[in-house]
Amino acid sequence: MADCSDPEIREAYEEVRDDKNATNWLLLQYASDKSDRLVLKSKGTGGLKEFVDSLDEGQAAFGYVRLNVSNDELSVRTKFIFVTWIGSGVKVMRKAKLSVHVSDVKNVLRVYAIDVNAHDKSEFNEEEILIQLRRAGGANYDRQAHNY
């Protein structure tokens, strides 16, 4: 069981959820290699790119990112992504525990449109993620997302 009791985690989650707050992402990491306690590693206002830049190849982490999705200038919607990050340098035992811990983290970071599981920073293509968010959002008037 992952320990997500750090009050900073809940506070950062509420900041990202608040459209009036500039904070649009957060990153949770384990307190140490042997610990199952998660802590708020960082948060920011620079969107998906800044979030991805904050990921460490040697760490396992969880993230939460707010993105604005639009089909046109009149239909902008706020959507959230939940990220499970397993860097290339993560040890086997940590990877195994991560699959169990993800449900504990989702109990705290609970409102999101899509789940992104990544092992490499190249997997964060913002355009592809926005397409997935549009599809998850119901009505989609974007011709690029259809196979016409």
Give structural attributes:
cytoskeleton, ADF-H domain-containing protein, Severin, 148 residues, 4 helices, cytoplasm, 5 strands, five-stranded mixed sheet, ADF-H/Gelsolin-like_dom_sf, single chain, globular, ADF-H, disordered C terminus, alpha+beta
Please summarize what this structure is.
It contains four helices and five strands. The chain has 148 residues and is of the alpha+beta class.
Descriptive notes:
The protein is of the alpha+beta class and 148 residues long. It has one domain: Severin (3-Layer(aba) Sandwich), CATH 3.40.20. 30% of the residues lie in helices and 27% in strands. It is built from four helices and five strands. The chain has helices at residues 7-17, 47-53, 92-106, 126-136, and strands at residues 25-30, 38-44, 60-70, 76-86, 114-118. A five-stranded mixed beta sheet has the order 2-1-3-4-5, with helices on both faces. It is globular. The relative contact order is 0.16.
Tell me the structural class. alpha+beta
CATH topology: Severin
Rg is 16 Å
Q: Strand order within the widest sheet?
A: 2-1-3-4-5
> With helices defined by DSSP (H or I, 4 residues minimum), what is the helix count?
4
CA(first)-CA(last) distance? 46 Å
